[in-house]
Specification:
CATH class: Alpha Beta
Number of helices: 11
Distance between the termini: 21 Å
Bound molecules: (4S)-2,6-dioxohexahydropyrimidine-4-carboxylic acid, zinc ion
Number of strands: 13
Helix content: 25-40%
Strand content: 15-25%
CATH architecture: Alpha-Beta Barrel
């Protein structure tokens, strides 16, 4: 039985770091194990211009532990006013890796997002031309669409028409939560990938709602029924290079989660790799973990794989249960997978 597993150092292709005191507290949790991460731009106000991204990147670099080689891969928040020249220049200079599409109102700090994708057609065409990938929060926001159907409806109404209209655009359907999303990514010939979080491989909507509401399992897209979770597990462990890890680790203080109108987000940065090793072992796919965490993402983004490695060790004794991390704004609860973890990154 495998006791250790050495992987090319993983990357996280979807991460929320926030700013200020929370940034300083959560950044080491990712920088410890991951080589790079795609940094989400949904700050208040959002990271819209190349200048915003440069300033945010500088704050991240200043918050990094001194010996860290972690590299933040910056994104711009797409608005209906985004200047295509600014996007192309920020990408060409190496400052920005991708652009993020939030449908307006879909999730945390998405009010400045896109109401009508036809209004950003010019930016998307410039991005296709310049090879700038688009990261997509794939949910419609129409009040008449049930929250559990919002991903599938987005694919039909927005994503597929958008990809047909701008065929050269490279697109990441982020945090896929449905079999519909998996099938859509698998149906594409090229230029489309899907990220999958650790938490959506572990929880379904029963975990969120049965026996009492669990605010720390509330995220967007919301966890779906069990058959969807199974489809995600098959996709993640299949070895298909179109799927890779994007944790969507999204810290909110306990005060903002455990309240009448709690924020969406699961904070998985500290234990995402332990959870993934557990899941891949359960699926008999430990040999495919490295593709998911470390190889498929760089291949899609046209970046080199990390040149160093991490080693995961399987301990006989369960690791201490994840608890909270302290931040200057209050405690942030670490995602509890609901089972004992045995795999840990060796340090
Ligand atoms: O659960 C989520 N939290 N989903 C998102 O799309 C945004 C994120 C956040 O920023 O908290
Ligand atoms: Zn996110």
């Amino acid at each position: 039985m495998t006791r250790t597993l050495t992987l090319t150092r993983p990357d996280d292709w979807h991460l929320h770091l926030r700013d200020g005191a929370v940034l300083r507290a959560v950044l080491p949790e990712t920088a410890r194990d991951f080589g790079r991460a795609i940094i989400m731009p949904n700050l208040l106000p959002p990271v819209v211009t190349g200048a915003d991204a440069a300033a945010y990147r500088a704050r991240i670099m200043a918050a990094l532990p001194a010996d860290s080689t972690f590299e933040p891969l910056m994104t711009l928040y797409l608005t209906e006013e985004t200047d295509p020249d600014d996007v192309v220049a920020a990408h060409a200079s190496g400052l920005v890796t991708a652009v993020k599409l939030y449908p307006a109102g879909a999730t945390t700090n998405s009010a400045s997002g896109v109401r009508d994708v036809n209004r950003v057609r010019g930016v998307l065409e410039a991005m296709a031309e310049a090879g700038v990938p688009l990261c997509v929060h794939g949910e419609v926001t129409d009040p008449d669409v049930d929250i559990f159907d919002r991903e599938a409806v987005f694919i039909d109404r927005v994503l597929d028409p958008l990809r047909r209209a701008v065929p050269g655009l490279r697109v990441v359907l982020e945090h896929v939560t449905t079999a519909d999303g998996v099938d859509y990514v698998m149906s594409a010939q090229a230029g489309l990938a899907g990220t999958i979080t650790a938490h959506h491989l572990v929880i379904n909507r029963n975990h969120l709602l049965v026996g009492g509401i669990r605010p720390h399992y509330y995220c967007l897209p919301v966890a779906k029924r069990e058959s969807h979770r199974q489809a995600l597990r098959r996709a993640a462990t299949s070895g298909d290079a179109r799927f890779f890890l994007g944790t969507d680790s999204a810290p909110h203080t306990d005060g903002n989660k455990e309240t009448a109108c709690g924020c969406a987000g699961c904070f998985t940065a500290p234990n995402a790799l332990s959870i993934l090793a557990h899941v891949f072992e359960e699926e008999g796919a430990l040999d495919r973990l490295e593709g998911f965490t470390s190889r498929h993402g760089p291949a899609f983004y046209g970046l080199p794989e990390n040149s160093d490695t991490i080693t995961l060790t399987r301990h006989e004794t369960a690791l201490p249960a994840a608890d909270k991390i302290a931040t200057g704004d209050g405690p942030v609860t670490v995602f509890d997978p609901g089972f004992a973890l045995h795999w840990a990154v060796a340090r």
